């Protein structure tokens, strides 16, 4: 195996999709909060921190399993997946590509921060 890099792990994560909206990857959703690459007992090790889209999200177990499978299929055996609840996930963490994929899939994407700010302004001034 070549030297393991964080960039390589992100390439593998790009193939892990959301089981509820399969056009989105975990990267599109922005639920990958951190990736660490190290070595344990002479073998590459990966620790990935994920944040659920909401507390108690049932898809997170499936997502964690799919992340684990993606790493295993690329020869990584030392895997740690940590769930982090704070800060809470927000649609601001979604990639622009992810929002476009939602639109193409027929789901209205969340508004951009700029639009949200304008809506709050309008609501306060009406």
Tell me about this structure.
With 126 residues, the protein is α+β, with helices and mostly antiparallel strands. It is built from five helices and three strands. The chain has helices at residues 6-13, 26-29, 59-72, 96-105, 113-124, and strands at 32-40, 43-50, 78-83. A three-stranded mixed sheet has the order 1-2-3. β1 (32-40) and β2 (43-50) form a beta hairpin.
Q: Give the number of helices.
A: 5
SS class: alpha+beta
Q: Give the overall form.
A: elongated
Uncertain residue segments: none
Helices and strands in order:
Elements lengths: L5 H8 L12 H4 L2 E9 L2 E8 L8 H14 L5 E6 L12 H10 L7 H12 L2
Features of this protein?
126 residues; 38% helix; elongated; single chain; alpha+beta; three-stranded mixed β-sheet
Summarize the structure.
This protein is α+β, with helices and mostly antiparallel strands. It has helices spanning 6-13, 26-29, 59-72, 96-105, 113-124; strands at residues 32-40, 43-50, 78-83.
């Amino acid at each position: 195996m070549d030297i393991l890099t964080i960039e390589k792990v992100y390439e593998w994560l790009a193939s892990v999709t959301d089981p509820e909206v399969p056009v989105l990857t975990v990267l599109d959703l922005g639920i990958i909060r951190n990736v660490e690459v190290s070595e344990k007992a002479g073998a590459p090790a990966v620790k990935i921190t994920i944040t659920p889209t909401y507390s108690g999200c049932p898809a997170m177990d499936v997502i964690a399993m799919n992340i684990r499978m993606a790493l295993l299929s690329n020869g990584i055996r030392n895997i740690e997946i940590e769930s982090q609840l704070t800060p809470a996930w927000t649609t601001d963490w979604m990639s622009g590509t992810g929002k476009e994929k939602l639109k193409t899939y027929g789901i209205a994407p969340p508004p951009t921060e700029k639009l949200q700010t304008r809506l709050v302004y309008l609501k306060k001034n009406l």
